[in-house]
Amino acid sequence: MTEVTQQAQQQASKVSKFDTRFTSTTINRIDAKGRLSIPPALREELRPAIEGDFFGVSCLPSLVDDHAIECGGEDFVDFLLQLVSNVDEFETARADIEETIYAELLKLSFDKEGRITLPETLRAQVGLTKEVAIVGRGNRFLLMDPSRVAPPANRARAFLKDHKETFRARALPSISARKRDDR
Predict the structure, then answer these.
(1) Can you name the residues that pair with 86 across neighbouring β-strands?
(2) DSSP class of residue 148?
(3) Which of 44, 61, 76, 167 has the greatest CB tally within 10 Å of its CB?
């Protein structure tokens, strides 16, 4: 088997796009050199399928939250670019978003201890000082000040509580039928 064929098979066996799942919230400290330890479970999600490929984090200031850094692997970058591809290619906004993604995207490699070094300019831009909340968001994770974690969770819980009937109505028919039969 040729080397090209082996590489193609390895690429094909990679997890399909957008299957990475970052979960949980952790609070870690930034050391004096700007290094931040990324939890082992998140690092494993970022491990490349092919030995020798980039092993680290792709990061950029959030496009929607001025106080967060969005991070992920190659599928996160693909996700961002796929979102942009849905905008008409003749729209100025599309060019602006593409330029922002490519200009601000940083690839930060892990050191031997599983840390990345966050540039001072990036930390200052989003207001990170000594502690960082690492917040799982499915295909990406956010780096933000720990004080900013609770408000979105509280809003989400309040929204779900206020709209529980709407969500109940959208439940699977078999579950809804079972609940009716139990009454």
Answers:
(1) none
(2) G
(3) 76
Residue 70, token pair as written in the block? 């969005």
Q: In what order do the strands lie in the sheet with 68-72?
A: 25-29, 131-136, 141-144, 68-72, 56-61, 106-109
What pTM does this model have?
0.75
CA angle 111, 79, 42 (to 5 degrees): 30
Sign of the C-alpha dihedral computed for residues 66, 69, 75 and 78 taken in this order: positive
Residue the block writes with tokens 């949980």 = 24
Cα-based distances in Å from 11 to 19, 48, 50, 63, 116: 15, 10, 7, 30, 26
Rounded CA separation 125/127 (Å): 6
Per residue in 44-62, pLDDT (tens digit) is 888 877 777 888 999 999 9
Partner residues linked to 59 by β-bridges: 71, 106
- First and final C-alpha spacing in the chain: 63
